[in-house]
Amino acid sequence: MNLFKICKMDFMNTVKNPTLFLCNTVFPLIFILIMGFITKGSYGTKVTSYDYYGVTMTLFFVLNIALTESNTFMEKRIKPGNVRLIYSPTKTSNIFLSKIFACSAFAAICYTILMVIEDKVFNIKLGGEDFIYVLILVLVLILFMCSFGAFMCCIFKSEEATNKVMSPFIMLFGIFGGVFFHVDSLGSAVQKLSCISPLKWINECALKIIYDKDLSMFVPVVAILLVGSVMLMFLCKLTFKPEAYV
Hints:
The protein is mainly α and about 250 residues long. The protein has one domain (about 5-245). It has helices at about 5-15, 20-25, 25-40, 50-65, 65-75, 80-85, 90-120, 130-155, 160-175, 190-195, 200-210, 220-240, 240-245. The radius of gyration is 18 Å and the shape is globular. The model has no long low-confidence stretch (mean pLDDT about 85).
């Protein structure tokens, strides 16, 4: 079975799970609106609280796509079909690549819908005429996080174990990335520590595009995420053991 057919099958399995769709569209939107309302008036007029959390919370929830990836890779309902693929005449790499590409396509649809609703319905600033650059940044981050989630699944070989390991790191990246509040106000030590969060640089890139029309960080950040995605796929190839998966 070729990669496209397996991707199609995995994509349909993911689409049939309404919980995953709601967790990647409705729930982020509700969270953005709640955070924007609670902190209303705290961010001035140029950058409102809704604008700030519209960007940062969207990117934070994209990080959680790694958890969706582990679900599409290791969920008990899906695993029997994957086991049949292992014993079929198909490349082993097609199994994890299909999970990465199918989950990426699903998440791309979800977050494109979310961002369009933010922009057109709630007037949250997402770049205006530069919206496409912010969207591309989000889509590339989705691919990276799906690759990362698949790699973690290859290592831990269990959805539960994978999620337990990834969840705290994603939360820390969100906190130090300035998702919930500006960490710069907590002192120079915390400011330096925040540099370890990849979300900080991605947030900074998105905010520069939206408010300064500055694309200087766009190509380097996208390039790093794409190279990182390819490297993670290669690591999946090295660590994915069909016999251990069964």
